[in-house]
Design goal:
By secondary structure, the protein is an alpha/beta fold. About 35% of the residues lie in helices and about 20% in strands. Strands 1, 4, 5, 6, 7, 8, 9 and 10 form an eight-stranded mixed sheet that branches. Strands 2-3 form a two-stranded antiparallel sheet. This is Molybdenum cofactor cytidylyltransferase.
Length: about 210
């Protein structure tokens, strides 16, 4: 099995959420960002690295309180204001030297599952010649994305809000089709947060209904 880390990017300023830091907003009993971290921890990806930036102490404290005693490595990106690339670079730079790849999760995507991470890792282990493994839904690329080690150095050349997608345009990418619209769903606005909260509440009600009728 390939050695794959999980990097959760949690450094952004949430500008479209107003004065609220969306990553620490409660969602179904946990800070929003803790959902992605929890799923990373529930997978076999190790280490789990969380890159903080804006309100770093508050974000780290929220995750630690929600997931006490868990093996999470926090890395502070002091250059977070320069854009996504610097956070991705900080996460990659923090990894042990023997990693074969890394799954990049976004802290504002709370419905990503550990089982999806497992599928990405299994696919990578069976086809390590690919530079990346990307989930798709309805033909659209989604997140998280698994990057092979050979992309780590090129990632260090990115700038501003560039993610790894530009690099993938000239690489062999393995696409994994999933029936999961959550891979293209993030929380960037108060409206999106309200929609996500309703969906979590509906899922909880459905789970209780099933339990009471089985």
């Amino acid at each position: 099995m390939k050695k794959v880390a999980a990097i959760v990017l949690a450094a952004g300023r949430s500008t479209r959420m107003g004065a609220v830091n969306k990553l620490t907003v409660p969602l179904a009993g946990r800070p929003l960002v803790a959902h992605a971290v929890a799923e990373a921890l529930a997978s076999t990806a190790r280490p789990v690295v969380v890159v903080t930036g804006h309100e770093a102490d508050a974000v780290a404290a929220a995750i630690t309180a929600a997931l006490p005693g868990q093996p999470v490595t926090f890395i502070h990106n002091a250059a977070y204001a320069t854009g996504l690339a610097s956070s991705l670079q900080a996460g990659i730079a923090a990894l042990p030297g023997d990693m074969d790849g890394a799954i990049i999760l976004l802290g504002d995507m709370p419905v990503i599952s550990a089982s999806l991470l497992g599928r990405l890792m299994d696919a990578f282990s069976k086809a390590p010649e690919h530079a990346a493994v990307v989930p798709t839904c309805g033909g659209r690329w989604g997140n998280p994305v698994l990057l092979a080690r050979r992309l780590f150095a090129p990632v260090m050349g990115l700038a501003g809000d560039e993610g790894a997608r530009r690099l993938l345009a000239r690489e062999a990418v393995l696409e994994i089709a999933v029936d999961d619209p959550g891979i293209v769903r993030d929380v960037d606005t108060p409206e999106a947060l309200a929609d996500m909260s309703r969906d979590f509440a509906d899922s909880a009600k459905q789970a209780v209904h099933i339990k009471n009728h089985t």
